Amino acid sequence: xxxxxxxxxxxxxxxxxxxxxxxxxxxxxxxxxxxxxxxxxxxxxxxxxxxxxxxxxxxxxxxxxxxxxxxxxxxxxxxxxxxxxxxxxxxxxxxxxxxxxxxxxxxxxxxxxxxxxxxxxxxxxxxxxxxxxxxxxxxxxxxxxxxxxxxxxxxxxxxxxxxxxxxxxxxxxxxxxxxxxxxxxxxxxxxxxxxxxxxxxxxxxxxxxxxxxxxxxxxxxxxxxxxxxxxxxxxxxxxxxxxxxxxxxxxxxxxxxxxxxxxxxxxxxxxxxxxxxxxxxxxxxxxxxxxxxxxxxxxxxxxxxxxxxxxxxxxxxxxxxxxxxxxxxxxxxxxxxxxxxxxxxxxxxxxxxxxxxxxxxxxxxxxxxxxxxxxxxxxxxxxxxxxxxxxxxxxxxxxxxxxxxxxxxxxxxxxxxxxxxxxxxxxxxxxxxxxxxxxxxxxxxxxxxxxxxxxxxxxxxxxxxxxxxxxxxxxxxxxxxxxxxxxxxxxxxxxxxxxxxxxxxxxxxxx
Length: 511
Known about the structure:
The protein is of the alpha/beta class and 511 residues long. It is 47% helix and 12% strand.
């Protein structure tokens, strides 16, 4: 009658011995260190509706720290920490939020009603996270069983190798099935306990942090208020161009130079030329186009906020856009100034190598800030009266893909290291990542993208119309020439010619 209790005690002692064995300890450590992050990556987000917005609830891959904040992921892969939600352990919530969706009645996204809904929002988020957490537990068990199977195979291989050394001593499965089974039991139990403890800490930290949320602004953090309308109403313009010196066409003939008309102070301060993107679009489309682009403009200083240039305070371009009556389309060209692209060019020209950690870290920081600013800008454009069509012009790469030592624009000024193939590849990759931010944001808002097909420096244009870009020996290097400005306008015109319902995901470029 006592054989059953003795058998249980014997099995339990064997389980404890197995828990102290090296293979089991290695397996549990592997699950704790690599298995948890893997499960977080594999478990899909749970989507819920909060304040009328779609929010994906999941967890971030934990950095090497005992605790950390939850995270918000927005368009353009922009990520920032929710400092009010601090979580101990590896499971730290992440909320994915796309473009804000306006209500069907076109009412405000944020307002007093969000305060009334705060309690329900917190409950929804916690419930969504709990659902994700349970799915994660199932994924962890599956991963642990697979890992246990692999470790079991490894144990058998080790046993076979030892048997070979002992003159082919036979290896019996029954001698190893028990230890492998007990190892799997220990690993699954340990995984569930680790996940359970981390989940309790995560739910506690999440609930405590979200208890302070009273609106969507509290959840994602405050964002710069959209610029107010600036200046008198503008009539007659079908389209408008906003952006930086590429769209303004710095270095070209000043506005009004051909007909002797007096230029507006903003035109002079912003170096807007008579052959800018807006002027070329007027010619190509036969419509009146308002040119708001300004040399040196970035998203926060120029497009969404005022900027001072040559002693003149130029109002936000988005604020001027809001005064355009019956606006049908907008072309936007922005990016290099936000990343201070000239800094990276000077760095690569001046030093033997420019792919060091300092430069890379600075680029990553600027790109993350740019992604957040682009999200705010695209939200402004999406909320324009009448919802005009928006074309986002991607950034061109001024250099060819292959290094040419005979090209003076690659050798650089005298006394500098100049460029080489590795530097060209690095600059091209960074330009691609800049464009990924623009394209991702455009896709989320349903905007069109245009990719200017400009001939790079030291390359011959197929149509022999002349250089598209100014070289180092010219006043404004890397900026479009008159021909380049025409090609930029042509790419935007081609994008505008594609009906919205036929719009493709790929950038539009003129054939």
